[in-house]
Write a structure and sequence with these properties.
The structure is a single chain. The protein has 367 residues and is mostly beta strands. The protein has 2 domains: 75 residues, Carboxypeptidase-like, regulatory domain (Immunoglobulin-like), CATH 2.60.40; 246 residues, Beta Complex (Ferric Hydroxamate Uptake Protein, Chain A, domain 1), CATH 2.170.130.10. 10% of the residues lie in helices and 45% in strands. The longest helix is centred in the first third of the chain and has 24 residues.
Length: 367
């Protein structure tokens, strides 16, 4: 009886094994990167949608996406806010890697007023405490003495409270300012303010996007009580050299970016410095003034390099150096002292495409 049972069982096992193998072989992965066609910047959060299957994926912080589907012919729709939609027809017979470039959208129409009910994403999304801010929107906000401040923009979000009038510190849902993890390109920034808390250390000309996580922090950030503020720097223009700057009431800034090798690597260098100390010298004040010999200034320097070693390897190196410098001199005793404080961070990241679904790891971060 057992022999007959085994004879009947063997065809069933063979059929099950072949059916399972057939299902595995019938799958293929579409992966790749989404970039700006003018600058080569990665488009974080770009949407890749498969029309026939009514499913899709979003690009991560480095513009990478991965989507596993059945082998067939598909129409891919690639979208990003402010860019023209792109359609790609693909006959998927094996794993495919794509590099997709989107062109900025130019609006030449009359004013259109659209009204409707806002989608309640706090109910439908699993990331209820995560808020992403675009740097261009932050630059459009009113700024104190013309200085665009990322941390003051964060204070306007729900669940966030400022640490005092004019102060750049912030409390998130009752937590203290020291319970917020502040990251600049994965490097921890401990002292995130200048001028005793009135200005943040982040130069907006060098920042690409900001993400604030107010609850349910991902495990990659470790245990945090209040929030995680993750700030990413621009990668630099891969197409052409570009410079910008400005002179404000408090500080002046300058940014220069361009390709190291076109379409392969790029750099960005951005600096900012106050000139308060210049007005504390002659001829603005006399030698007999009570504040003669005293001065204060701060500066920031951001730099980033990235290079595509191969189709599967990309290297990023970021650095930040900032200082507040206070010089004090007593007229009565002649005692003089120089007090500097600030931050210095360096991070190195190597993104390696291990397979069509897994990419990247950080080598080190020094603060």
């Amino acid at each position: 009886m057992k022999k007959y049972f085994l004879l009947l069982l063997i065809p069933c096992l063979a059929f099950s094994s072949s059916f399972s193998q057939e299902n595995v072989d019938n799958k293929a992965t579409i992966s790749g990167y989404v970039k700006d066609s003018l600058t080569g910047e990665a488009l974080t959060g770009a949407a890749i949608y498969v029309k026939e299957l009514e499913k899709g994926a979003n690009a991560n912080a480095y513009g990478f996406f991965s989507l596993t589907v059945n082998q067939a012919k598909y129409l891919l729709l690639i979208n990003f806010v402010g860019y023209q939609e792109k359609q790609i027809e693909i006959d998927l017979k094996k794993n495919v890697s794509l590099t997709i470039e989107l062109a900025p959208k130019v609006y030449e129409k009359q004013e259109v007023v659209i009204t409707g009910e806002r989608i309640d994403r706090n109910i439908k999304s699993t990331e209820m405490g995560r808020v992403e801010l675009e740097i261009e929107k932050i630059k459009s906000l009113p700024a104190l003495l013309g200085e665009v401040d990322i941390l003051k923009a964060i204070q306007l979000l729900p669940g966030v409270q400022d640490a005092g009038e004019g102060n750049s510190g912030f409390y998130v849902r009752g937590g203290g300012p020291d319970q917020n993890l502040v990251l600049l390109d994965e490097g921890v920034v401990y002292n995130a303010s200048h001028l005793f808390g009135f200005f943040s250390v982040f130069n907006p000309d060098a920042v690409k996007n900001i993400t604030l996580t107010k609850g349910g922090m991902p495990a990659q950030y470790g245990g945090r009580l209040a929030s995680v503020l993750d700030i990413s720097m621009k990668d630099g223009n891969m197409k052409e050299y570009h410079a910008e700057g400005g002179i404000g009431y408090i500080a002046s800034r300058f940014t220069f970016e361009g390709p190291i090798v076109k379409e392969k690597g790029s750099f960005i260098v951005s600096g900012r410095r106050t000139f308060i100390d210049l007005f504390l010298r002659e001829p603005f004040i006399g030698p007999e003034s009570n504040i003669a010999g005293n001065s204060y200034y701060f500066f920031d320097l951001n730099a980033k390099l990235n290079y595509q070693l191969s189709s599967k390897d990309r290297l990023f190196m970021s650095g930040y150096f900032g200082r507040d410098v206070f010089n004090f001199k007593s007229r009565e005793t002649g005692f003089a002292v120089r007090i500097p404080w600030g931050n210095a961070t360096t991070s190195l990241r190597w993104n390696h495409l291990f397979n069509d679904k897994t990419t990247g790891f950080r080598i080190f971060s020094i603060t």
